[in-house]
Write a structure and sequence with these properties.
CATH topology: Cytochrome p450
Shape: globular
Number of strands: 11
Largest sheet: 4 strands, mixed
Oligomer: single chain
Strand order of the largest sheet: 1-2-7-4
Radius of gyration: 25 Å
CATH superfamily: Cytochrome P450
Strand content: 5-15%
């Protein structure tokens, strides 16, 4: 019986040995450095897998930060067959996103966006070139301009009012509210209405489908790390899963677009889909866009606008609960500002006066950037960064999480939540200060930043004005707050491992629901 089992074991061993020899040969061919240039330092590598074994057992941004503490602010790793340069200092980030921004403006063609995002024809993962530049201009001048973001203020107000009524109901019952679920639904509703002019009928199905996509997109995809082995995506089953999810996403988007076109009336406010359809049909674009291109861009809006906004608000509320003094100061500012006004409308003028709240949001973004490892860039040509050569084809990761916690820039209390550190300074999150890049910098900075932050500021201001907050089982003084679980789960963004649940305590009643006209007979 033992002899019968021995043959397949020996066969498997021989296969793995030949496979390893093949990979090592491929690796040498792809990544040999014949020029003898001075490469960035990094940890020693194993055959075939390179440094993959050193990323196990922890969140990637934390592990890479620890490795950078040993090997330096520009560190070279090999994951499978691919070289990664990891940036963990302001000076290195400056050279990547400013000095050599054009050289590093390219994206690797990764498996998940290639399938899900219509061949990477979205904005986030699109290759640098004429099409990307055109779509980036459309974002700046049409989709996410200051005027366009303001035009969605009524949508934001109505959706936040619904959230407040749900919180008031939980307060009346003295029951905890699942903050994560409510924020995700809120962000998705705002994005639906801004994109299509109405709430999507299949909103829940879309959220659940995108959660599956995000799970598959989290971490490092094996198929992307062994690009010469085309069969890996197939034998792992990942490609088939992604294609199935893409078909589902495509059906949901098609249904929403069809509903939009059938329900649109003359004089309706122009939404994001209207803008894209207008540009598609008016013939003014140098590079014509297709329906698939439009769906890819809308998909970017959904994933970025929903995931990022809700994550930032949830982490900020978590930090405020753990820091009652900061919470009290932020609430006092919002309430005093509103008490000076005759109206309870949280308009742009009110938000502009909430100076301390903006510091709180900055501090939350510093400690808990929604995307701690900025999306990878690729060096088109070899260039010098911090006196090292980054070879052509190297993928570059900027560790925004490490930058935001570096004592060199933030002092000895860099791990502490202290919004006052931004007081009187000019540091912002718009890509000008490379020690603080929660939304990226340079050409590839997040184009929808203003759209998302408008929601973040409004939601936080109203939650702090209308309610006090306590942890379930804790008193209003938050005696258990510092024990609040702050563990993270790694995905497309870093979210709380345990969904945030808080008990609201009503202080100022939210506005009543607007009366809707009766349905037509």
């Amino acid at each position: 019986m033992a002899e019968v089992q021995l043959t397949p074991i020996l066969f498997l061993f021989l296969f793995l040995f030949l496979f390893a020899v093949f990979l090592i040969g491929t690796e040498r061919k792809l990544f040999s450095n014949s020029g003898g240039a001075r490469l960035p330092p990094g940890p020693s590598k194993l055959p075939v897998i390179g440094n993959l074994h050193q990323l196990r057992g922890g969140l990637p941004h934390r592990v890479l930060c620890d490795l950078a503490g040993v090997h330096g602010p520009l560190m070279l790793l090999r994951l499978g067959q691919v070289d990664f340069a990891v940036v963990s200092s302001r000076d290195a980030a400056l050279q990547v996103t400013k000095s050599h921004d054009l050289n590093f403006a390219h994206r690797p063609q990764l498996l998940v966006p290639s399938i899900i995002c219509y061949g990477c024809s979205d904005i986030v993962f699109s290759p640098y070139g004429d099409y990307w530049r055109q779509m980036r201009r459309i974002c700046a001048t049409e989709l996410f301009s200051a005027k366009r973001v303001r035009s969605f203020s009524a949508i934001r107000a109505e959706e936040v009012a619904e959230l407040l009524r749900d919180a008031a109901a939980a307060a009346a019952a003295d029951q905890p509210m699942n903050v994560n679920h409510k924020l995700t639904a809120l962000s998705n509703s705002i994005v639906c209405r801004a994109s299509f002019g109405f709430k999507c009928h299949n909103q829940h199905a879309f959220i659940e489908t995108m959660k599956e996509v995000m799970m598959l997109a989290s971490g490092f995809c094996v198929a992307d790390l062994f690009p010469s082995l085309k069969f890996v995506a197939s034998i792992s089953g990942l490609a088939s899963k992604l294609k199935k999810l893409h078909r589902k996403v495509d059906e949901l988007l098609d249904a929403a677009i069809k509903e939009h076109q059938s329900s649109k009336s003359e004089g309706d406010e122009e939404d994001l889909l209207d803008v894209l359809l207008r540009l598609k049909d008016d013939g003014s674009l140098e590079t014509p866009i297709t329906f698939d291109n439009i769906k890819a861009v809308i998909l970017d809006v959904f994933t970025g606008g929903t995931e990022t906004s809700s994550t930032v608000v949830e982490w900020t509320m978590s930090e405020l609960i753990r820091n009652p003094t900061v919470m009290a100061k932020a609430q006092a500012e919002v309430r005093e500002t509103m008490m000076r006004r005759t109206s309870r409308d949280f308009d742009e003028e009110v938000i502009g006066e909430l100076h301390y709240l903006k510091l709180v949001i900055k501090e939350s973004l510093r400690l808990r950037p929604p995307v701690p490892l900025l999306l990878p860039r690729v060096a088109k040509e070899a260039c010098q960064v911090l006196d090292y050569e980054v070879p052509a084809g190297t993928r570059v990761l900027i560790n925004a999480w490490a930058l935001g916690r570096d004592p060199l820039y933030w002092g000895g209390d860099a791990e502490r939540f202290r919004p006052e550190r931004f007081e009187g300074g000019e540091v912002d999150y718009k890509g000008s200060h490379l020690e603080f890049v929660p939304f990226g910098a340079g050409r590839r900075i997040c184009p929808g930043m203003a759209f998302g932050m408008a929601t973040v500021e409004l939601v936080l201001a109203q939650l702090l004005f209308h309610f006090d907050w306590k942890v379930p089982g804790g008193g209003e003084v938050n005696t258990e707050a510092e024990e609040l679980d702050m563990e993270k789960a790694f995905g497309a963004s870093v979210v709380r491992k345990e969904e945030l649940r808080l008990v609201p305590v009503l202080r100022y009643p939210p506005p009543p629901a607007a009366r809707r006209p009766p349905p037509a007979a």
